[in-house]
Amino acid sequence: MVRFTAQVISFLFHPLLLSTYLVILLGAFFPAMGMADRGKVWIVTAFVFVFTFLLPALNLIMLRSFKTIGSLTLRERQERIFPFAIITVIYGIIAFLCYYKLPFPNLNKLMLIVFGLVLASFLITFFVKISVHSISMAGAVGIVLPLNKEMEEPRLLVPAVALIVLAGLVMSARLVLGAHTLREVLHGAAVGFAIGYSGVMVLF
Q1: Nearest Cα residue to 170 out of 134, 121, 129, 132
Q2: Is 180 in contact with 74 (CB distance < 8 Å)?
Q3: What is the DSSP string of 2-66?
Q4: I need a surface site. Which of 12, 27, 52, 104 has the fewest CB within 10 A?
Q5: pLDDT tens across 156-186, in order?
């Protein structure tokens, strides 16, 4: 039962879903951020979901079907490099499109930070295995915490606390499943938080 719960948590908070969750969260709690008009939030969310989750996920499935990777969980470090390279390119293109083509203020900055998280995951994987779940969850915490300070009323305080709790649950789930060592999880959390927090401080 514990293992099943850990698998569910790992799936629900898959790193590829980070962008989608952030757009929904900020659209609901921080409309002044101006990523999109309220009526367009779901259009933006659908766009982000398709290109940051669905497209990379389909690429992973295709790689699995051609036996380029052994499994969708990518347990081995060497096995992660090629799929991570493809995902990094996809996220780079999305960050470019958001920055130069889409008329949604601040979405471009958010996607640049997410791209930074993806790029860091890819580059680190050349040398050591690291928990990308930890990078994404801690990155979300690093993004939301400083944004909360920008609000006249701290409406992001509760979501920030919830994210910290969820980050702990996700990291614990990765340990329960034996997907990562404690060091890999902690290193991922440190990298994710540093990029998320510094990205907001620099870009916003």
Answers
A1: 134
A2: no
A3: HHHHHHHHHHHT-GGGHHHHHHHHHHHH-GGG-SS-GGGHHHHHHHHHIIIIIHHHHHHHHHHHT
A4: 12
A5: 889 999 999 999 999 999 999 999 999 999 9
Return the SS3 of 153: coil
Amino acid at 196: G
Global pTM reads 0.93
What are the 10-residue block averages of pLDDT along the chain, 204 residues in total?
94 96 88 65 88 95 90 89 96 90 81 97 96 97 89 81 96 95 97 97 90
- Domain hosting 139: range is 2-203
Give the pair of three-digit tokens for residue 22: 């952030």
Measured CA to CA, the distance from residue 117 to residue 200 in angstroms comes to 12
Q: What is the pLDDT of residues 8-33, one digit of tens each?
A: 999 999 999 999 999 999 888 877 66
Number of domains, the chain: 1
- Residue 197 C-beta-side C-alpha neighbours within 13 Å: 12
Q: How far apart are CA 172 and CA 68, in angstroms?
A: 29
